[in-house]
Amino acid sequence: MCLRVFILKKIVKYIIVNFIMVFTKGQKSWNKGTKGIMKPNKTSFKKGDTAPRTAFKKGMIPWNKGKKGFKIPKETKIKIRKNHSRYWLGKKRPKMSKEKHPNWKGGITPLSTALKQTSNYKIWRELVFLRDNFTCQNPNCEFCDNKIGAMFHPHHIKPLSLFPELAFDINNGITYCAEYHLKSKLHRGLKCRFLSNQVD
Predict the structure, then answer these.
(1) Which of 71, 69, 99, 95 is CA-nearest to residue 82?
(2) Residue 154, class by beta-carbon neighbours within 10 Å (0-12 exposed, 13-18 middle, 19+ buried)?
């Protein structure tokens, strides 16, 4: 990081010296003859000019003289605290839940998505990973070579759509690496395959 800053400073200095601050011999400087004071222009304040209406005049009393600040009532403080976003962390807003929320679409969230947002699912997921020692359970996996530390997905052996009661059963879970889980078509025709096996 320090080397980058050093190189950047050198480049900026080179540009200023060679391209911006080009001063040829015999050229007059921009401030020659000003003696440290800028020459008056059209917008300068001239002698005899009157101050604008908004200017503070001699003898005027400041608006905040004698005031020691504004005290907020206790009820207002409580209202501010309740409306603050951190107050509602982990709590349900009764006025803004389900049908009362303007973005409510009649509970169209799929069961699998709703379950994955719960704390029980997160616990189940971690327990499945721990049981399988954070390794892909697909033998001789071509995607991760069964190495520890790959990106993992928990997979339901019996599908959630047919067995929602087994959603958090550890025996119904297995660990697969993310690539195998997504590319192996495990979920394609899962219902049909499972039902045909049950009939046989």
Answers:
(1) 95
(2) buried
What would the pLDDT profile of 64-83 be if each residue is shown by its tens digit? 888 777 788 888 888 887 77
Largest CA distance in the chain: 107
Question: Would you say 98 and 104 are in contact if contact means Cβ atoms under 8 Å apart?
Answer: yes
CA distance 200 to 181: 26
Listed residue (168, 171, 180, 106) closest to 139, CA to CA = 180
Q: What is the pLDDT of residues 156-175, one digit of tens each?
A: 888 887 888 888 899 999 99
**81 in any annotated domain:** no
| Residue 33, in any domain of the structure | no
Per the structure, how many domains does the chain have?
1
How many angstroms from the chain centroid is the CA of residue 107?
26
Cα separation, 76 vs 67, in Å, equals 21
Count other Cβ atoms within 10 Å, centred on residue 130: 11
pTM > 0.85: no
